[in-house]
Amino acid sequence: TNPPPSGWPTPTSSQKVDATIAVSGTFDGGLKRYYGIGDGGQSESQDPMFELAAGATLRNVIIGAPAGDGVHCEGNCTLINVWWEDVGEDAATFRGGTTYTVDGGGARSASDKVFQHNGSGTVYIRNFRVENAGKLYRACGNCSTSYQRHVVIDNVVVRDTDAIAGINTNWGDTARFSRITIVDDPDRETSICVKYKGVPKGSEPTEIGEGADGVNCLYSPSDITYQ
């Protein structure tokens, strides 16, 4: 597998987007920057920049600000070499489907979450970098359907991020970590895996712990490198 890229790519050009771009099949942006939806805030009701139909692939796209609600996957989807310069609300939300893959790319400036997992199944995040974020991944803790959700995170570089993953252990969620590099964190402030008690829609989940446990949060000390 490829190492995470060391820096953010330079856009080949920029395109202002006035309405959500619907993607079925494969959309290759040629590393163009797309921007212009929403206000860059945390509102939960913003439109996405890209809406991917089941089975769609989005690749070689730079998402600038404002980006609205980023990318919505309505079913299984693949995001290859997608870069979020300023996340805003969420970089991507996985809604329907059972398998979602993020390979390459990066995201920065996410005041809350980068990847929001509302549907069922497993999210794979690999060869990615995240900077200045709340969480890289969150399994929804209060969606209308309380699915069991899984995430597999491999070969990811993390900087200035509160937590890498948040999961709901009472629903049997799991998070697996390998080849994680955490940069500039001498006091070990970044949480690897935060556990929550998921709740019905309309309530707020409660944090109940963190760290490897061999059941829900799956990693060993050798999986985490500090630089």
UniProtKB/TrEMBL annotation:
Entry's family note: Belongs to the polysaccharide lyase 3 family.
Cofactor dependence: Ca(2+)
Compartment(s) of residence: Secreted
Top EC category: lyase
Main location: secreted
Protein name: Pectate lyase
EC number: 4.2.2.2
Presence of keyword Lyase: yes
Organism the protein comes from: Micromonospora orduensis
Keyword Lyase part of the UniProt annotation: yes
Keywords: Calcium, Lyase, Secreted, Signal
GO terms of biological process kind: pectin catabolic process
Catalytic activity: Eliminative cleavage of (1->4)-alpha-D-galacturonan to give oligosaccharides with 4-deoxy-alpha-D-galact-4-enuronosyl groups at their non-reducing ends
Task performed by this protein: Catalyzes the depolymerization of both polygalacturonate and pectins of methyl esterification degree from 22 to 89%, with an endo mode of action. In contrast to the majority of pectate lyases, displays high activity on highly methylated pectins.
Domain of life according to the entry: Bacteria
GO terms of molecular function: pectate lyase activity
Recorded GO CC terms: extracellular region
